[in-house]
Amino acid sequence: MDDAARQVVLGEVVRMSVVLTRNPSTSISVVRGLERLKSEVNRRLHAAPDPAAAQTAAGVPPPTAAAPLDARLLVAPFAEIIRSKDTSGPFTGAALSAVRTFLTSGVLGGASEAAAVAAVAESVTRCRFEATDTASDEVVVALILEVAVLLVESGTGPVLSDETVWQIFKTCFGIAREERHSQLLRASALRAAHHVVRRVFQQLPRVLAADADASALTFAASTPASSDADDADGSEGGGDG
Which of helix, strand or coil describes residue 44? Predict the structure, then answer.
């Protein structure tokens, strides 16, 4: 993660912290998670430019600028806010907006961050929040749909499990079937479900090719054993003759 990405993360952490000051019931774990994340990002922004930097007073080298930021640490406080049914819409929306920024800016994504991506996906598919007014609540639901599609279509898509993709589809389709939502939101949810299905079928050739390769490897591995057994049988038959 380069300095530009760290600045993106820091900006979202600060914005989320400011938003949560208006919510006195914010979970202590969320507050501590944001504080820890902010501290870690700041340490790396002001870290030594290379591993050969001077040792600290304790003889331990300071973190280098290239030191990776744990993706699970990055998403944990935001995922907790999104999952919490005791959080009102504006705060849930702020957390979803932050996750959207992480996805669109490339801060979050890649096989090495599979656990963090799974945590985000799980929080989005289980998103619950306290209702305020219809218009504001639909803005939050629209953000759920946007993040859900981003998870499937961005660089995080390949690391999602089949079950997670299925849950994302169910979330989108479920919103589309909710009669209490506006026609516009329901249509947006149906389009989101279409995006998920289309992405799955776009990946189908790759999946089939991988299955074919695996089958070929299995066959190749078993063939020598069968040939050896035939040779052994032939030798025994010749001896009897």
Answer: helix
